Amino acid sequence: MVVLNKIYTRTGDGGQTALGDGARVAKYDLRVESYGTVDETNATVGLARLHAEGETDARLAAIQNDLFDLGADLCRPGMEKDAEAEYPPLRMADAQVERLEREIDAMNEALSPLRSFVLPGGSALAAHLHLCRTVSRRAERLVVHLAADDDVNPAAVRYLNRLSDWFFVASRAANDDGARDVLWVPGANR
């Protein structure tokens, strides 16, 4: 259980922050930027949930929890040291990726194939889910960049890749199963 009695610590006033293993790094470090953008994604999901109900809201709540798991995973470098850690670090699991895939497949069954690219919009929920999609894509780019030079859980990368797909398919479902999708018309305003 996490207990936060004091919110400010002043330890970051010099432009550094602590990673999950205690190491101090610059606040602009790529690892910090990566899990910070995951946190930003989570905030956009919170906005989307203001427009969601029922099963969609429950799925978004699960995604928010997953995103905290993902942040915890990313803030802890050195997967090779996990076995010797006093407390086992929280890592993303393939089961979380597989759940997203099952949900994508279930939502996609009701959708007709696309004949054009979709513009963000339609319903309020769909527009917010598109925002979630674009922010999660940015998080994915940062995590992939981090993984090129540092130790990153492969399940974390897979999760972010599926998550943006989940948001896209969910946005179409939120637009009356695609009937209210706003389609791109190439060159329409020339």
Descriptive account of the structure:
The chain is mainly alpha-helical and 190 residues long. The chain has one domain (29-182): Hypothetical Protein Ta1238, Chain: A. Helix content is 54%, strand content 5%. The protein contains five helices and four strands; from the N terminus they run E-E-H-H-H-E-H-H-E. The chain has helices at residues 30-49, 54-74, 94-108, 124-149, 154-174, and strands at 16-18, 24-26, 118-119, 182-183. The strands form two sheets. The protein has a two-stranded antiparallel ribbon. A two-stranded antiparallel ribbon has the order 3-4. The chain is elongated and about 55 Å long. The chain starts with 15 loop residues before the first strand and ends in a 7-residue tail after the last strand. The model has no long low-confidence stretch (mean pLDDT 93). Pfam families: Cob_adeno_trans. Pathway: Cofactor biosynthesis; adenosylcobalamin biosynthesis; adenosylcobalamin from cob(II)yrinate a,c-diamide: step 2/7. Its EC number is 2.5.1.17.
**Uncertain regions spanning at least 5 consecutive residues:** none
Query: Count of helices?
Result: 5
Principal-axis shape equals elongated
CATH class: Mainly Alpha
Could you give me the name of the CATH homologous superfamily? Cobalamin adenosyltransferase-like
**What is the beta-strand fraction?**
5-15%
Mean pLDDT: 93
- The CATH architecture would be Up-down Bundle
User: How far do the termini sit from each other?
Assistant: 58 Å
Query: Main β-sheet, in a few words?
Result: 2 strands, antiparallel
In N-to-C order, the SSE pattern is EEHHHEHHE
The third-level CATH topology is: Hypothetical Protein Ta1238, Chain: A
Count of the separate structural domains:
1
In angstroms, what is the radius of gyration?
Answer: 18 Å
Give the total of beta strands.
Answer: 4
The structure class reads mainly alpha
